[in-house]
Amino acid sequence: xxxxxxxxxxxxxxxxxxxxxxxxxxxxxxxxxxxxxxxxxxxxxxxxxxxxxxxxxxxxxxxxxxxxxxxxxxxxxxxxxxxxxxxxxxxxxxxxxxxxxxxxxxxxxxxxxxxxxxxxxxxxxxxxxxxxxxxxxxxxxxxxxxxxxxxxxxxxxxxxxxxxxxxxxxxxxxxxxxxxxxxxxxxxxxxxxxxxxxxxxxxxxxxxxxxxxxxxxxxxxxxxxxxxxxxxxxxxxxxxxxxxxxxxxxxxxxxxxxxxxxxxxxxxxxxxxxxxxxxxxxxxxxxxxxxxxxxxxxxxxxxxxxxxxxxxxxxxxxxxxxxxxxxxxxxxxxxxxxxxxxxxxxxxxxxxxxxxxxxxxxxxxxxxxxxxxxxxxxxxxxxxxxxxx
Length: 389
Known about the structure:
By secondary structure, this protein is mainly beta. The protein has a single domain (40-388), classed as Neuraminidase, CATH 2.120.10.30. It has helices at 2-23, 277-280; strands at residues 44-46, 53-55, 58-64, 73-75, 81-85, 90-95, 105-110, 118-122, 125-129, 133-140, 145-154, 164-168, 174-178, 194-198, 206-210, 218-220, 227-231, 245-249, 253-254, 260-261, 265-266, 287-288, 295-300, 314-318, 331-338, 341-349, 353-354, 357-358, 362-367, 373-377, 382-388.
């Protein structure tokens, strides 16, 4: 009797589940985002006067200081390092004249610009993305002078996210990332919250990828020539959602914002008005990150300063949170890459955050021709140099 009772209860439970599925067959499916892989902290140790934790075998020092918020970094063909200073409307060159590994002087390359952020070199010319325009300059390597060639195209007003960043493929294809004007909203201008594309002459810029709330930094992986970028998720949903992201950006793809986040999860602000396909047709992140950790500069390792097993892996700056009850980010992580997959992560440089005290916020990463790694920090106002001891 007891056996039959168990069977009856099981059948009744199955029928309830079937009914629930039938009743909700029009509901939006939501793919649960994979949890970010836990960081392994065992590879870092304090070995410097800056109080930063770095991998064994490396040293770190300040290459340039008193820079008022350096952001994007780029290196010219002669090895001179340039940095954008958006808050001061400047682009500067930091020059090491005597070769001692520290900048001897800072030269203003461009001044009185409109929040210049993105910098890139292609075919010997310097490209600068300000908030509302992208300009090409003729670059004099010897004199360290930039003379305007032409404004290639205008860009929409930034609002909440004014930074624009540039990346080139080897064939001259140029990508520009443009953030949203808001935290979460439907934009009127299709170029907002997107990456656009054109050739290096700025011919007919067009939409490349959309649904990107704030892909602050983008880069082209050298071997595959694929475009990679970060994504900062929306605020005010709590400490754990939505995940920030790393994406491989492809043409005509939708990366979800504002309707969806993470792995096709509907945003509650728009869920009631979404159809079945609105989130199903969006791209799942290549790699989910902690919410609010604010990913910025990313660089693929191609340097003799790093061991053979690290070549091709990805370094990523986590600028740090503001919309989290517990501070997260404030470090640089290293992600193991296998083709187009990021399979694990570990802390690479930490120590910018001690308790609730923030001493620095890493931004961009750039390798010199010698393989040294330069790191901008817009809170401390410095550029660090990391190299093998």
